[in-house]
Recover the amino acids of this structure.
């Protein structure tokens, strides 16, 4: 994750966005540890099953975590 943040900063990005399945608690905890915050949800179709993904964002210049 630190390399992703470093690359984003080097390229002049201000924010990183990601989405994660709402039931993936381990991934959500990892992203939250790195300072990502949930800002919205969006539907995700898996076969015929509609699931929800969480949209998360983080400022590139936020204090390092990890």
């Amino acid at each position: 994750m630190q390399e992703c943040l470093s690359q984003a900063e080097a390229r002049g990005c201000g924010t990183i966005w990601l989405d994660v399945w709402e039931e993936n608690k381990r991934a959500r905890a990892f992203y939250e540890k790195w300072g990502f915050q949930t800002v919205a949800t969006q539907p995700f179709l898996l076969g015929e099953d509609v699931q929800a993904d969480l949209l998360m964002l983080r400022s590139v210049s936020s204090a390092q975590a990890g």
